[in-house]
Design goal:
about 25% strand; globular; alpha/beta; Hypothetical Protein Ychn, Chain: A; 4 helices; about 90 residues
């Protein structure tokens, strides 16, 4: 179980993360990367999350795709503890 964290709006990094992800892995977009996930299709069945505070800061709350879940900082911390490995992409 790997948690991939993307914090920059780099399409190539997002595509690489999605390519590497297995069924039990998760992707969290935060910072400026939330802008990217709001405009990029997500493969069905992927666990993709965005930090809700970053969405609000960029006025993107209403632009989140239905298959992407907005989470809090508390949820973010819990995810880092629940996954066996965390890989940060920037």
């Amino acid at each position: 179980m790997i948690l991939y964290i993307l914090n920059q709006p780099r399409l190539q990094a997002l595509e690489q993360c999605m390519h590497l992800m297995q069924d039990q892995d998760s992707l969290l977009c935060l910072g400026d990367a939330v802008t990217l996930i709001c405009s990029t299709p997500v493969r069905s069945g992927m666990s993709v999350y965005v930090l809700s505070d970053d969405l609000e800061a960029r006025a993107l709350t209403s632009h989140v795709p239905s298959d992407v879940q907005a989470i809090s900082y508390t949820d973010f911390v819990k995810m880092t503890l629940d996954h066996q490995q965390v890989i940060r992409w920037s």
